[in-house]
Give the backbone structure.
Amino acid sequence: MVPQRHEPIRIGYYICHCGVNIASQVDVETVARSVAALPNVATARTYKYMCSDPGQEMIHQDIQDHRLNRVVVAACSPLLHERTFRSAVEKAGLNPYYFQMVNVREHDAWVHTDRAAATRKAVALSRAAVQRVALQRPLEVKKVPIHPAVLIVGGGIAGIHAALTLANAGKQVYLVEREPTVGGHMAKFDKTFPTLDCAACVLAPKMAAVGAHPNIHLWTYSEVVKVDGYVGNYKVMVRRKPRYVLEDLCTGCQECIEACIYREPKFRDEFNLGLGKRKPIYIPFPQAIPAVVTIDPGTCIELKTGRCKRTCIEACGDRRAIDLKQQEDLKEITVGTIIMATGFKTFDPARTPYYGYGTYPNVYTALEMERLLNAAGPTSGEVVLRNGRKPQRVAIVHCVGSRDETTNRWCSRVCCLYSLKLAHLIHERTAAEITNFYIDVRTPGKSMEEFYNRVAEEGVDLIRGKVADVYPDPADGADGRLIVQAEDTLMNRIMKVPVDLVVLSVGLEPHAEAENLRRMFNLSCSAEGWFLERHPKLAPVNTFTDGIFLAGCCQGPKDIPDSVAQAGAAAAEAFSLIDKGHIEQEPNTAFILEAECSGCKSCLPLCPYTAISFLPEKKKSYINEALCKGCGTCVASCPSGSIVQNLFEDGQLFTEVEGLLAETTADA
Amino acid sequence: MVDSNLPIPGAAAWTPRIVAFFCNWCTYTAADLAGVSRLKYADNVRIIRLMCSGRVDPQLILTALAHGADGVLIGGCHPGDCHYVEGNHKMLRRFRLLQRLLADLGIEEERVRLEWISAAEGEKVRRVVNEMVAAVTRLGPLGLPRRRLEWDRELQHLEAEAEMPPRAGAEPVAPAREEVFHA
C-alpha cells in the first residue's frame, strides 16, 4: 500500500465527536461536508470516538477501500493522540507521516461559546490541514542508542525507592543527595499515618539497602550543577562537596565526635531544625546513610583558623579517614534518563505572623513537633515545653499556608492526616487535651477515614474554624500560656482557648531550589512552582523533556504511599526506555539543500547544539542530523531558503497559513 | 476583554482574523491547558503549531497578513526557558526587525504581537488572545489582499506607462515584495 510517486493524492478526513466534547460545540457533520468538497479529499467522515479501536479500524478500512494515501484526523490535541493515529495509519501500510492532526477540542470546542463560529473555525483548521497533508512526505523514525545509567536527583523516600527498583533490575544508578544523608523528610518523622508504624522501621532498611547496593553510586552532600545533552545521552556535572572525611575509610564509629575539642554540642543542628545542638564534626542522626561523619567548615576551628589540636584526627588514628585538605570534586557522568525526586519545603509560618511563630516560644511547626516526638530527636521523644514542663493543653492549627488566598491556595493534602497523627501521638505521650482547628477535614485514601474516626473517638477535640490569632494569656502570660482565638463556625461562637503549646500544621511548598532545577533540567512548572507532568492522567510521571521523570513531592504534595507509588512508576518509565536499547526520535530535523546554499554561514552561530558545520572545500553549510534537535531556528533564518525542516517545511507551513485564511481571501 | 458573542459596534459583519504561531513546548501546551480548563476566549484566533518560536520565519507572518489575517500572534517560552535553549531569543531579534519593516508598510504595531507564555499559563493565553482581538478590532480590517490587488493594478498601470516608449529605458520591476507575499 505504499503510494506510488505519481499516484493522485487521496485524503481521508475524520472528525471526532469525542462523545459530546467536540460535537456539542462544533457541528461535526457540517465540517465533514465542507471538507468533503475540498480538492483531493476522497472521504470525509465523523465518528463518536476516533481514538477507540473501531475508530482506528475505520481509518484502516478506508485506507484499503478508498486507496487513501493521506489521513487527517480532527479531534483532540496532537500532544494527546498524534502518536495513536500515526501508528494506526502505519498499521494500515501508510507512512505514519502522511498524517496530520487538527486540534478542534482544546483549541476550539472547549474554549468557544458560539457554535457557528466554532464550526467555522473547525472548517478553517481542517482546510489548513487537508492542504498541508498533501505536501507531507514520508519520513523515517530515527533510532538513537540510549545510555543505560540513570541519574536520580534527591534521596528522600521517592528517590530511594526509584533507585532500588532500578538497581534491582540491574541498572546503574547515580543517586545524588544534597544533604549528608539520604532519607529526606521521612527520616525526620516519628510515626506515619494511617498505620502509625514507625517511620525509621520502614525507611532505615531501604536507606541501608541504597548504601550497600552494588548498582547504586550514592553521592550524598552533592549537587547537580550542570546538565547537557538529551534523552539517552545526558551529560551531568555533579559537585561533591568536601565533607573532610573519606567515605570509604570512615567506619561510622563516631569516636571523632566524642573527641572533638568542643566538649558539648554547641551549634545549630540542621537535621533537628535547630531544636538541638551538634558539634562541628557530626552525623545527622544515628541511622544516617552513608554512616559517615561530616565536618562543617563553618564551625570547625581547624578549618576556620588552623589552630585546633585536631583531637578528631588523633581519635581516628590508623583509620586515617579524616582529610582536612579535601577539595570539592566535580564529576561528569553520562546517563540516559533522569528521575527528579527533589521533594518540597514546608511553609514558613513567619509569613503568617498572627500565629505567633517565632514570637512565642511554644508555637511549633508540625515538622518540629515530629522531631520532638522522635525517639532519636533532641528530647528523646519527650514532648516538652521550652521550660521543660509537659504541656496540658495543645492546639493544632490546620491549613497554615494552605487553602489560603493570602499565602498558598492549594490543599497540601497531608496536613489533615498528619495533624490527626500528631494529636494522637501528643495525647499518647503527655495525656494533654488536644484541640484541632480545621477548615475541612480531608482524609481521602485507603484507611484514612477510618484513621480519622479512630483519632476522633480517642477524644481529640475538632473545632471547625480558622484560627484568627494566637496571643499570650493576659491572666497567665508569665507562664507562657497562649490564647488561641477562633470562630467555631458550626456553633457560631467565638472561642478563646488557653493552651500551653500550639502546633502549626504547615503546608507543603515547592522546594526552594525548584526554580533553579527547573532551568537546569529544562522542565516546566505549574503556576504554583511544582514540576509539571506531561499529562495528569496519560503521562503523570513524564515531563515535557524526554527521558526526565518525576517522583514524589517535587510534582505536588503527596503522602508517603503515593510518593513511593509514583517513584515506582517513574522507575518503570525509565526502565522501559533503557530496556528497549534505543530511543525513537521525531524525524523533524533540518537538512541543507546544497545546491541552494550560498555559504553565507549565517546559520552557524544560531544552532545551540552545534549541529551545523561549514564544509570549506564545498563552501556550503552542513547539518549533522544526529545532533539536530529539530527546533527550526536555522530554517527560519536562512536568507536563501536553503534549509528544510522535515515535518515543518516552508511549503507546508505557507500552505497551512493560506488554508486557514482561504475564506477571507475569497471575501476580500 | 472581548466577548466574541457581543456584536462589535460599527462592524457588525466583520470580526478580525488572527493567525497564531505557538511553540510546541510552552505556548501550544498552554493553549491546550486553557482548553482543558474550559477558559473561554475569542474565537478569532487560529493556531499553527511549530516546534519552537525560533521557527517563525518573518515570511510566515507576512504571508498570513497578505492572505487576509488582521493580526498575527507569536507565542514562545519565557526567556531562559526555551526547550531549544535560545530559539525564542532569535525570534525576538527577528521580531524587532520585522516591526520596523511593518511600520514602513503602514501596518500598525499592535497587529503583530510576540508573547512569552509558559505551559502553565492557560489563563495568559486567554488574556492575550482577548486583548489582541480587542486591539485589532479597534484598528479595523487590515485588508491586505484587497490592497494587494490595488497595488497590482497600480503596478500594471506603471508598467503600461513604462512600455509606451521603446523597452530600452524600462527597468524590469523588481519582484522582491511580491516574492515576500507569495513565498
Q: What stands out?
A: The longest helix of chain A spans residues 560-580. Chain A has five domains: 11-141, 142-241+328-343+511-582, 255-319, 349-509, 590-645.
